[in-house]
Amino acid sequence: MYKCVSLLLLLMGRGVLSQEVEVCSKTVINSCSDCIRSGAYCTWCKQLNFTKPGEQEAARCDTRAQLEERGCMGNDIISPMNTLTVTKNTALSTNAFVKDEPTQLRPQEVNLKLRPGLPRTFKLDFRRVEGYPVDLYYLMDLSYSMEDDLRSIKTLGNELFKALQGITKQGRIGFGSFVDKTVLPFTNTNPEKLKKPCEEKELFCQPAFGYRHVLSMTENKADFNREVDKQRISGNLDSPEGTLDAIMQAAVCGDRIGWRNSSTRLIVLTTDDGFHMAGDGKLAGILEPNDERCYMDKQLYTKSNDMDYPSVGQVASQLEKNNIQPIFAVTKNMENVYRELSRMIPKSEVGVLSEDSKNVVELIQAAYNRLSSKVTVTHDALPDNVRVTYTPLCPGGGPAGDKGVCDNVIVGELVSFNVTVTADECIDRERSFLIGPLGIKDKLKVSLSTRCECECDDPKEENHKDCDRKGKVNCGMCSCNAGFVGQKCECAIGEKDESSLRAACRKDNGTECEGRGDCVCGICQCYAQQGGSTYYGTHCECENESCEKFQNKLCGGNGKCRCKICECNPEYEGTACQCKKSDEQCRTPSGSVCSGRGTCQCNQCKCIEGYQRPYCLTCPACQTPCITKGKCIECLGFQTGPFSKNCSQTCKSINEFEMVETLPPGKPCDVRDVENCRVFFIIKQLDGEDNYFAQILKTRECPELPNIYAIIGGSIAGVALIGLLILLIIKAILYMRDVKEFRRFENEQKKGKWMPGDNPLFMNATTTVANPTFTGE
């Protein structure tokens, strides 16, 4: 791999101005074509024997200045340049009253051949001709809320034609209307409501519909007035309308609408509500996306209920593609909504309607003047890796960008733009794209190809002397005959193929000889370095000038560089031999080096993970031995716990311990053993990573055993007491209920009233009989 970068630093005033000039940044260069493709300013020297022995052929690739400085003659330098050929350049027309179509843009066709990365600028002229034809399509919202506006437009037909005649003598007008999709939830689908979607009191109401094309472009005022006069209001359920459906069909159904090829195309949209957009159709179960095609039958949009609304992007794309400029004439409450829409649609205007729409003619005139006085030049879809910028050459035109804009341009005024085209990479075949003002049919066709191949005009001799009579010259390099390889075709490969020989010069399938030598017959011949030394090694991977430096000295001046690694003198160490061998600053007061938990490098401790310098004494992130060594303390001190059977092996990290009556002052560690007793101890880490000394307190702190009899007796007594309390509570509840029932009985008894009288079923036990013959005397 051969790299070359040329930079120029200019010092100016107090600052430093960095300026890049003719830079050739290269990667892998194996031929003249590789060189040309690698950078806009890369050139190739085809001069024979230009490279020096041991130098790669990639050295032929550099900037022109560098090659000339190294002795390459000007005629031997290959540097394809950009070319521009104007293939059609008809003069601009002054007015529209010519036999053929008027020409407003010059040139009309150019052919560009570009060097990748090298821009090419040319001039584009535009002049709007006087009396250019205008096609105006009046697209009206006929939902019920537009009833007053419909009455107004029926009386404004003559004024509309008069205003259009003031703009051009070749004006035509068409008419269309829209409401919304005739499916729920947008429109009431009751059959009676579909026939008459307006209020009951409304006598003149037409059935619900999506979009209807009423009148194709015409110059006849009577036809326009007659068709508009036939229109009736309609209706729907929700506020947003099917506006984008109508605009899309008006844009793509050019034959039905009657758009002329050479005309300014305007759509005047009048509405008092917002619009549905892509995705809203899902509310009605319409999942098929809009395909931007024309579906008109008997003047109606037939796919209204089958296809979703278009997106704003789709509408903007079709309007631009068909050179149509929309004018949104909307009520005051919708102004902000349509201004946001206008920002997404190039070459569009917004005007505010009065309550009865009687100002629509003045609104259209003002919007047309704003549209026609602004010239915006841009392009359609560009090929991959191609950039185009525009610089307006008009007062207040602004900086260069992806669009060129000139404002306040009057009819007949010439405006110009500098167009800069850049191809960043090679293009496989000729491509083309169009440039032109938005809303205008006139376009410039740019045919573009790239110059990525070299034309070297080589000697015709098949076996050239500079190729050892075993090959021919190709752009200064030897193209060897079969069976021979090498810079001068000096290597006979015999039964081997060239790829296997070259593979022997690659380390781990990398670059041949690491880019530091030539592969000659499968052996690397290493290059010399600027300092006089040479690369070495099987694959030229070694050199002795790239070792680490200390105090700006290679290997600190205390060692030798061997294949990029410092070999230090006996008394030095470090990656750059920057340190004297010593452990004086690594020794602890006990005399150990780094506490046995690290190594001393450059007289400083390099601790194992977790421990901190200077002596690797502490490890803040390590788990405390009070926790990790608790089971071993139980095992060593009291021969209990899970390690008791193999205590000496499991707990050998505690090299020394002692049982003591009292512990030294300080907070001791404690652990609970298998008998739930607390064992107190102190543990210290000795030199080494896992080496401890422990002092264990002989006396454990065990909890007192509970009184079993007291617990059992108390439990029985408690159960008995609780049972007695429950019985008392139940007895009290029953007693209270009986008392309540008795009192209720007494109250009912007092309320009873007994009526006096004899029971007719009662028979007295005494019978009295009167003697009929007894007179009482």
From TrEMBL:
Coiled coil regions, renumbered to chain: none
PROSITE patterns listed in its UniProt record: I_EGF_1, I_EGF_2
Residue stretches making up the Integrin beta subunit cytoplasmic domain: 731-777
Signal peptide (residue range): 1-18
Domain Integrin beta subunit VWA: 31-454
UniProt KW keywords: Calcium, Cell adhesion, Cell membrane, Disulfide bond, EGF-like domain, Glycoprotein, Integrin, Magnesium, Membrane, Metal-binding, Repeat, Signal, Transmembrane, Transmembrane helix
Family listed: Belongs to the integrin beta chain family.
The protein, known as: Integrin beta
Organism: Oncorhynchus tshawytscha
